Each structure stands twice: as structure tokens, then as C-alpha cells.
Amino acid sequence: MPIDPDRAIGADLGETAFTWSASDVLLYHLALGAGAAPTDSRELRYATEGDLRVLPTFATVAATVRATEPPEVRFPGIDIDLAKVVHGSQQVVAHRPLPTSGKATARSRIADVLDKGKAAVIVQETEVTDDTGEPLWTARSSIFARGEGGFGGHRGTSDRSPAPDREPDLVVDVPTLPQQALLYRLCGDRNPLHSDPEFARAAGFDAPILHGLCTYGVVAKAVTDAALGGDATAVGSWSATFAGIVLPGETLRVRIWREAGRLLVTATSLDRDEAPVLSDAVLDPA
Length: 286
Hints:
Blueprint lengths: L4 H4 L3 E9 L1 H10 L9 H7 L25 E3 L2 E3 L4 E10 L7 E14 L3 E12 L4 E12 L23 E6 L4 H5 L12 H6 L9 H16 L7 E8 L8 E9 L2 E8 L5 E11 L1
């Protein structure tokens, strides 16, 4: 079905009430690779209940962590084949440290639909409040739908945060696990692109790829550990553009620049000649 921007832009996607537990948070952190050093007290903040601190990227799975069905890309004015979709960008703003368990309500809308010619970009915004109505986090994401452009919409503007033209202040190499996508799918994203070799080949990939949001979380953790002493509560916001895929088992090189109170970040794959993975990434401390 062709995209209808007049119906889609501004569409109210309704409210979703959800709960999460400390076990959900622990599963999410482990799916990002937490606990690889199981006697390190900083790692145990992610992997045990004793001093559990929630990485704000948990916001990307909190409402769907128990989902077992593949997601659908079906909104007012939008109906897209899942095989055509990859994540474009993601931002989470934590209005305060995320609780280790809780009840919340998410209110979502389609903020924009961009026509990039050969592709469409769908931008979604979600505001989340706790059971007293106080803000918890705001998320903004975009998905890139190949072959769905040309519907006569506007292209949008560029909003880049390029890395400085100097050597980074910190460089961290982060290994991913060969089974990382199979672990991460247990956090609620059962898209077969990340687990089914035949589906992945039909979508144009040689093998199942890592979830973009898994990469987003893995790199956020790496930056938090390297630049913020491993304190997840010190993260105020984290945003990134997905510049390329990650194949499970690859090692990512994360470069970090300290710039005007912010952390600017890039990530590349060492296994594919430093192919870009994340770009225009920014972490703002709380």
C-alpha cells in the first residue's frame, strides 16, 4: 500500500500501559553483553539485583520486552513489508534515572514521514510517564523503508553531529557474540531478519544481522563504561544514526570525543575494514 503522508503525519498511535521487572532489565543488559567480567563490581551493577542501575536504552524495549510475535510496520497511512525495513536513528532522553521495575504508560504518534526518493523514513515519538503521571523518558526513532519512497512527500532536513576533526579522547574495542542476536530477540524483537538465514537472504543480507537497537545499546554501554565510570544513571540522553549493519560476532571500535560537555561517538566494524556502524552519536550526561 502506498504511503499516505496526509493520514500518517501526526497520527495518534494511542496509549500503551506496560510493566517491567528487575528480571527484564537484567535480561536486557545481559543481551547487550553485560557480565562478561563477572567479578567486576561495575559489571555487576548491570547483571545482578544488588546495586542494579538501568541503562536508559532499556527504554527501547521496556514496553515490548515480553512480546513473542514479529513486529508489524502498520500505522494510519502506512503498511510496509517487514523485510524492507531497517532502523534509521534512535534517541532516548531520560528525564530521571529509570527505575528497576515499574508501571508506565506510553503515548506515541507519527511525527513525520520523509520521502527520500528510493526510500521512506517514518519518524515516531513516544512520551512515557509513570503510574503517577510523572515523565520517565521520551523516545524518538526513525525507520528506513527501502523502495517505499516516491510518494510526493518532503525530504526533511539534515540534523548531523559529526565527530571533531581530531584524534578521539577515548577508543574502546567491543566484541559482540556470535549468538548476540538470538539473545537480544528475547527482549521482544522477534523480527526474523535477525534469526532466520533464509529470511535474511531474501531481504538482501548474506546472514542474519544484529538488531540495530542491540548495537545502539552495546555502544551506549561501552561509552558509559569508558567515560562515565560505568554509572548508567549518569546518562541523560543518547542518540545515534544507524550507518551500517553489524554481523553477530564482529568487534566494534568505538571512538569518543569530549566536546562542550557532551560525548560525541562513532562506531565501526573492525571485521569489515572499519565499515561505519553508528554515526552522529551523542551522549549527554544527566
